[in-house]
Fold each of these.
Amino acid sequence: MTSVTTNPDERALLQAAFRSFDEAAHTLQQSYSALTARVEEMDAELGQSNDALRRQLADNEAMRVRLDGILESLSTGVVVLDECGITTRSNRAAEHLLGVSEVELRGRCISEVLAHRGLTVSDRPQRIGQSVVSISQVPLRNDSGEDSGQLVLLQDMTRIYQLEEQLQRKDRLAAMGELIGRIAHEIRNPLGSVELFASLLQRDLGEHQPAQRYAQQISQAVQLMDGLLANLLLYMRPVHLTRAWHEAAALLNESIELAAHAIKKVAVDIRIDISQEVPSIWCHDGQLKQVIVNLVVNAVQAMPNGGELGISLSREPFQTLGTSAVRLTVRDSGVGIDPAHRSRLFDPFFTTKDEGTGLGLAIVHSIVEAHHGRIDIESTVGQGTACSIILPHPSATEELNSQAGPDSEGHGVSDTEPAVREVVLMEDSSYD
């Protein structure tokens, strides 16, 4: 049987102990409640921090994707190098210009890649295949402004280079043109007299006299010289246009028939590809036939042992001419064009053939410019040449505007005026 403490002092001590325990338990309960509240607050704060972090990660990922898209959309080639000059990143433009894939480029020293293509870091124009580029290198800095690598920039200057060539060509032609025109007129006048007297001499001489044959040869030589002068004057004279819609298939077939004299000389496989989007061409049919005939003859002469001649017609992107346009391409599998001759292809009198006079492509260039078009040439020695004529392909509204006023080239001739000349076949003149 348990004895009950009756000692007042002991009882007081026991009661004090219970009170202390209750106070400690109450304090502990308050601490626990405060800790629980704090944990809940921290959970909420952590949740907010996690949400903010997720949003930031999403924003960073969106920014990364956007920056990657911008980098890949640049026409300038960009190669990112680390501190050791090793490639860590590149865009499609750089890979296209260098002719390598990202896998082949990454991890390699950029100087070796450039040296393999015969290139170096330099602002001067350098040719890569059909493209002309300038290559520069700039430091890559981080947020603190410290160098963290290098950027190699490959700027495609092909179109700028072509425009500079055109300007230089126009300067040369402007000076040459005035001289050519005056000389041609001065020579043509006495040639007419020589032709007249040679004809009279043939008439007066007997049919069987040896001198009659000499007079005939003089007359033929004068006619050849007169034809050359006619081509010169044709080149110098402003080109007048009577443009209209012409069926593409018929125009190309008639042009090939006109060039049959050259095509029959070699074994040529002709392939014509006309896009269904381009059933007709807005042009002066006679002059465009003249362009096609010259290009076809050149292409055939570039294939002395035969080959494949391709003629294609397709729509061209709007940005090429700043308006709706079509691309007419004459392609051969011949000897190609020497790069040293590229800048002089359309100069009058430039030819590498003994029997050529170098006027064919010069007149082609003049006609295409009169059509407000453009000529692009791509060629690889030993593989062939593709000559593309890009011509406006107006809509109904653009056609009405074109017919309403004078020719924008300053010739003062509207598209509704009568034609001033038909096809004049140029002398055979090869690309190379």
Note: Residues 72-156 form a domain with the Beta-Lactamase fold (CATH 3.30.450.20).
Amino acid sequence: MARPRLTRRMFLRRAATGAAVLGSPVPLRGEPPTFTVGVIHPVTGLLAEAGRACRLGAQLAADAINAAGGVRSLDGMKLELLLGDTQTTPDVARLEAERVVGRGARVLMGSFDSGSTAAMVSVAQQKRVPFLVDIAAADSITANVAKSVTDGQAKVQYVYRNFPTGSSFGRLAVRYFKEVFNAAGVSPKRVVLMHANDLFGQSQSKGFIDAHTAARPAWEIVAVIPWPEPPADLSAQVARAKAAKPDVIAPITRLASAQRLLPEIRKQRVELMGIVGPGSPGLYEAGQVAVLKGDLEYVMDNVPSWPNFKRARTQQAAEEYRRRSGGKAFDANSVASYDGILIIADVLERVGKAALSEADGPEAIVDAMKTTSLRDILAVAAGPVVFNEIGDNPNASTAMIQILGQKPVVVWPKDAAVQKFVFPRPSAARG
């Protein structure tokens, strides 16, 4: 039987779909075309667990959108994810962004750590590719791009973020600290801030300190103790913290550093009312709970984009995530990327076929991004997803979670809480 002749149309279609996820089959004749999104997270290296959660969250959202009919304004066009791995290295992140754009990605999403995300920003701006930051907190990521547009150095801002900034993290952390302490009927006086000394840790700690200075709560930050990230040993830093006689240690960690910090606090028998993080990974992931066990029990953390489990849709997504992840929990990382894909799909619905124009498509997508007002997301939020003049979502919110019974649960704010918090921790209950 003679093989069918490969026509020019068939060749071009196969070439276009070659930008799909590695291992995905070439679409059969009659299937709708795809819109390729470059999804780049750290799926190997120090942040691999968090990055893999982001990747799976994004894939679940794309699968749900495609199963529901795809992007209807684009004749049912399916979302296809072209995946990348930053390896938690800015240089690799930049190269991965260039690679996926070269293979047909028309929108970027990522990446997790602020350093790698900042490296991807330059690619987005140079290549005219809209970039939705699903996770990364450093204020400078969007602020620098907005300033370059204002100053006339760039014509268009292609970078937008649905994630709390470092400064908003700080404001909400100080507010939640105060509210939780008041609700518990206790009055901690001395807080020691400890943080990873990378871009993320510096940004988060500055936001927390600035918010504390502005709010002037009843408790004082008596010491600020950084460490090189990743740390080889934290015994000296914990000894400094212990010498400051803290009521509360407020850590800003990465996964690897949390695995050194929390056991060291226990080993040195630091007397505390509790450990309450201003906001960072490393204090709630399933892998961390398995490794740190009792060292994480009663630890609290001010986390972004936590799933709102009071919504039925969130519960459904969490169950599907648990099934496809081998039993892992739907958390801040997975829901942030899930919501990111929902936002991209909403933008494409509103921009329609203009998004497919090679000449004007990027600007059409940016214009639609600016007018976003999306309520139907899965994370705890202060309102619909909107983007301000800097490109940030002022309604991106945080929630205070606590490890109780070896599981992270929302304990604050009250309208999102699914369980009552425990503070001070039982072994440290005092005055």
Note: The chain is about 40% helix and 15% strand.
Amino acid sequence: MSIEDALLHAEPVDPQRYREASRATWISAALNLVLTVAQLIVGWLAHSQSLIAHGLHSFSDLLSDFLVLYANRKGSHPADREHPYGHARVETAATLILGASLAAIGFGILWEATLRLQAVAELPPVEALALWAAILTAASKEVLFRYLLRVAERLRSPMLAANAWHTRADAASALVVVVGIAGALMGWAFLDLLAAAIMGFMILRMGLKLAWESLQELIDTGLDKDKVEAIRRTLRDTPGVLGLHELRTRRMAHQALVDAHVLVDPRISVSEGHRLGERARRRVLDAHPEVADVLVHIDAEEDQALMSNSAGLPDRDVLLAHLYALLGEEAGAIDKAVLHYLGDRVEAEVFLAQETCFDAARMAGFEQRLVAKLPADPYFRAVSLNCRIAPK
């Protein structure tokens, strides 16, 4: 199987989460299908235009359910070549679409209420059967809303939460239908229009809120201040971490990505610095379940100081040639050199072969040349001589 085929048929990143979200959405889709058909049939039989309209509204919820199913499946796919950070942002895009549709429904209810206020006397009479159908619809939608919201909170899924609130909007509009039909049966048709205007405004406000939050995520808005501070404490408390700067966060659906620059002892090895960075990363992932990944950049100095002070220093090959010239004819005895770019100078750790270390005269010659030349050297602040003993 090719890499592309393997990625295409890969299991979701979190199979349990995917199954729970899919099950909840399929339940929602099934109920919306039943309610859509029931409202259209009863609305036609009972001569209720509002119930027919609400049936069409339930049909829009059905379309939203299928959008959620697609986004949930797509968003659960692991990272691939085209999407190295995964597909979680599909959930964000779906939430944006649902929020926009919710706002459109709220505006539509407001608009319809405005039009009906201009012709209250012309509202068609309805039969009592429509009232019972509207009550059953409102109750069913409210139960479904509470179920979907509970699942969304447990899975921390903004997309499922948006779909839940979409269902609550349908329940609210069903109450508008209940009030309207009851008012029409009692001769008070204006109550339907007043309730429609109020609920339309609430639905419009909720839709705009969901759409705005999704838009903020798409433009990489960071986590709130308390969560960022908690992540900062976790990183700073890592043993071996001396400082922290440039901590950045961004949301990705129900998770978050973190970037941080960690300051460590400048004289430790690259491997030890990498180990400290990995330890800091693991501590954040363990302590903050909402964080999907952490990118840790290891710094030997504060970035601004490093950029301003060491910018004029040459690269390793030039410095090694200068170090050989500094040590003179005995430079051939150098087995290894470790360079530390600190401030505006370099500190070197020179490792000499075993036979050189045990030659007192040669070591004395090294030290004398260094004592004489280092104070005026343009590159090196200090040079330490070390004995490299290889195992036999």
Note: The longest strand covers residues 243-252.
